[in-house]
Every structure is written in C-alpha cells, then in structure tokens.
Amino acid sequence: MKHLHMLMAVLVIVLFLYQSYLVLSTNRQAPKAIKIANHIIYALIIVSGAVMLMQLISANAPVQWVFAKIILLIAAISSSIKAFNPNATAGQRKTGILIAAIAYIGIVILAITKPANLF
Questions:
Q1: Which pLDDT score is estimated for 117?
Q2: What is the structure's pLDDT at 60?
Q3: Is residue 94 part of a domain?
C-alpha cells in the first residue's frame, strides 16, 4: 500500500506541475483526460492513505503529522481548483498555484521527516 501511495503522490505532483505549466506559459487548460486522471489519482491517494493511517493507529504510532498532511492536501486541492478554473483571472491562477505548491512542499517535508511531536 505504501508504494501505491508514493506512486500516486508523485503522479499528483507531476500532474500539478504539468497543469501549472499549461496555465502559466500558454494560458491553456489541461485536456479532459488529464482532469479525469487527476480525480482518479486523488481518490487513490486518499484511499491508500486512509488504509495506512488505520495501520498506524492500530500500531499506536504517533499520527499527528498525518493530520497536518491532510490539512495541507485540502489546501492544495482547493487552491488548485481555483487556479485551474477556466474563469479565474491571471492573479487568481498565480496565487492558487503558489499556495498549492507551498502545500505540496509541506506535504513532502512532513512525509520525509515524520515528526513525532508536531502538536
């Protein structure tokens, strides 16, 4: 399950970078297949993360960092929605991409460090 989760995380970041490139450089939207793939990958990352969270909870491992990752994922998804909205202004797109990028960087840092006493 861990490998699936990590693969989906890499795919989410790659798709985010691709969509950001399209929006910022050519002011185009991603093809419909990319948007559908994004939804499927988000679903798989959430399901695989939930399964691994249940395993961590059953092992009495500290999981505060997981909740921080969930909050950052919600921030990344919501700002990506605004950034990749066809009706968004250029400023909204740039701000949404910046917020999502910061959230993804935070998620990666938390995944690597796994701080035991976050809160």
A1: 60
A2: 87
A3: yes
